[in-house]
Amino acid sequence: MAETVSIDIGGLQQLQETLRILGTNLANMVMTATEEIAADTRGAITDIYPGQLSDQFDVTVGDEGGLASVTAMSADPYVLWYEYGTRPHAITPTAGKQALKFVAPWSGAEEFFTLVHQSERAHNGTIALKLAMHTSALERWTEAIYALLDDLELG
After folding, report:
1. Residue 97 needs a FRET pair 20 to 30 A away by CA distance; which of 73, 121, 133, 134 works?
2. Do 101 and 77 share a domain, yes or no?
3. DSSP string, 1-15
């Protein structure tokens, strides 16, 4: 599973070269905003995916081919199972073990089972992650462009 947002900074670099006003480095402003989008994305992942699942994501910032981008990606099977759900399946003790031990969330007591039939419903966190990433990108990159316009006294 991977989600990416990007903006073409090649055109912005051409604009910067054309303007050469106030020594403003628009590409740097956009890349700074892109780093902020990455931080926002990490926060959104923590909000959307519970516990240790949020640690299974890599969030990277790229600036190749004239595109500034943020990519959130996880190849961890547990993330995919959480995201898309699973069919009911048997969970049994591993070799040498006689029972499965769980801590009951309602009581905190340890419980033991020899067989568990489990399924996981689909959580569809990708939708919320896409929304968070695209909202952050729109806000942060727009702020960077408006900051340049303010510097040029055009905004």
Report:
1. 121
2. no
3. -EEEEEEE-HHHHHH
Q: What is the rounded distance in angstroms from the CA atom of residue 80 to the CA atom of residue 89?
A: 16
**Whether 78 and 100 share a structural domain:** no
Parallel/antiparallel/unpaired status of strands 58-62 and 67-73 = antiparallel
The pTM of this model reads 0.69
What backbone phi and psi angles, to 5 degrees, belong to 18? Answer: -65, -45
Q: CA distances (Å), 104 to each of 89, 91, 107, 108, in order?
A: 20, 16, 6, 5
* Residues 112, 47 share a domain: no
Do residues 104 and 33 both lie within one domain?
no
Range of the domain at 40: 2-84+122-151
Residues 83-132: pLDDT tens digits? 888 888 887 888 777 888 877 767 788 887 777 767 778 888 889 999 99
